[in-house]
Give the backbone structure.
Amino acid sequence: MNNSASDPLFLDDLHVGQRFTSATHTIDEAQIKAFAAQFDPQPFHADDQAARKTLFNGLAASGWHTAAITMRLNVESGLPLAGGIIGAGGEINWPAPTRPGDILHVESEVAEITPSRSKPDRGIALILSRTINQHGEVVQILKAKLVVPRRPAT
Amino acid sequence: MNNSASDPLFLDDLHVGQRFTSATHTIDEAQIKAFAAQFDPQPFHADDQAARKTLFNGLAASGWHTAAITMRLNVESGLPLAGGIIGAGGEINWPAPTRPGDILHVESEVAEITPSRSKPDRGIALILSRTINQHGEVVQILKAKLVVPRRPAT
């Protein structure tokens, strides 16, 4: 089952293996440089010539920029969770750089569902989100622990 | 030992337990709303009145905004690493919300140092960075795997 646009989902509506696919976002050099100037002012995120002499071998987006774009894609089109997307934390990896011109989308999968013992109105869903470029390369893997409300009794 | 401003450090210059403290950054409502509008458009990051009805009980910064500010503090004043701060990935947690008016700084500690087996010019440093507000509350814990160059032979 692939929910890309549907009613907001409560914890009770999720099941392990459930998948979601976001819309796409195209990142360009101006976006990469603007984010870098504000939050990650390092040569490999700010200047293509300088970036060629680094491990990145050319301009690459800050990993936090990729994370922020992933969040926007999941908020707007990827993960239709009741109450929104509220992360308690998670694991993040950047197996490949995000480059100017990349067209990113996010594929997410429910990995675990854990109702709270102390708070009966919510639980934690472990969601695995892969951010993927137009070549099918995974540029980010995020395993996020999200707080998801339970469906209110009616 | 507390290095807050010093020469760039190679992997060989690091030792487990070494600590670093960044300068501070004051976050305000305008910054929180601007980041939310661009990357995390959800009511608890965008509208104080709406946020009062949510789990956050008032306006809070996106966790990715806290992460981005943490990066800037570490790049500019926290972690003087040779070659810059290049993250392969890590674990991130947000134990408390970042609020308008918070004055954040980052305290980092070297947790592990692992020279690369395959690439003799570099290694991985596991760095634990705590982002702390003016009340001493930890708003983010990041365990980052950073790629750090070894000191070139001379």
